[in-house]
Amino acid sequence: MRLEIDVPAARAEAAAAVAWAVGAQGVAVRDASTGDAPPGRAVICLWLPEEDADAGRHRVAERLGPLLPEARLRLVPERADWRPAAIEPVSVAGFTLVPLDDGPPATEPPVGPGTLRLEPGSAFGGGTHPTTVLCARAIEAAFERDPAPRRVLDVGTGTGVLALMAAARGAAVAATDIDPLARRAARRHAVANGLADRVEVGEALPPGPFDLVVANLYLGPLSALAPALAARLAPRGRCVVSGITVEHRPTIERAFAAAALAVADCAALDGWIALTLAPTSTPEPP
Ligand SMILES: C[S@@+](CC[C@H](N)C(=O)[O-])C[C@H]1O[C@@H](n2cnc3c(N)ncnc32)[C@H](O)[C@@H]1O
Question: Of 16, 36, 93, 171, which residue is most buried, by most CB within 10 angstroms?
Answer without folding.
Answer: 171
